Amino acid sequence: MNEILDTVALVLVLIGALLCLTAAIGLLRFHDVPTRLHAATKPQVLGLILICIAIALALRAWPVVAFLVPIVMIQLATAPLSAHMVARQAYRNGTIDERSLYVDELADAGRTPPAAGG
Questions:
Q1: Which of 46, 49, 100, 110 has a 20 to 30 A CA-CA distance from 20?
Q2: Which residues contact 113 (CB under 8 A, 6 or more apart)?
Q3: How many domains does the chain divide into?
Q4: What is the extent of the structural domain holding 65?
Q5: Structural contact between residues 56 and 68, judged by C-beta atoms closer than 8 angstroms
Q6: 3-class state of residue 94 by DSSP
């Protein structure tokens, strides 16, 4: 049973590392802010979760799980928030091609100054 769990942990680490690598490549290769944010958040977060599960399977100890759960929770909380703030600022700076947006929910909010609550 130990060999099976170690093999599963190895496969999870490899898949997680591959996802993190594709996130880094996506940051370099994609040309606009929304696609870069997609590459920076989604595969990177999933890669980190898979690596944390692999560590928990490999070490098989409850203190390790108790240490890894807050790491995953903080990552799940901060990655979408930071991506949202970067995307909103890029929209306000005008670095997002507005013609490529299907729905523009910030069209009215972008015209009001930030200090006015918009």
A1: 100
A2: none
A3: 1
A4: 2-116
A5: yes
A6: coil
**How do residues 24-80 score in pLDDT, each as one tens digit?**
999 899 888 888 888 888 899 999 999 999 999 999 999 999 999 999 999 999 998
Q: Model-level pTM?
A: 0.80
Give the pair of three-digit tokens for residue 79. Answer: 């990655």
CB-based contact 45:75 (threshold 8 Å): yes
Identify which of 28, 30, 29, 45 has the alpha carbon closest to the alpha carbon of residue 83. 45
Token pair 């920076």 in the structure block, residue: 40
pLDDT tens-digit profile of 84-94?
898 888 888 88
Cα distances (Å, whole numbers) of residue 58 to 53, 66, 93, 109: 9, 14, 46, 49
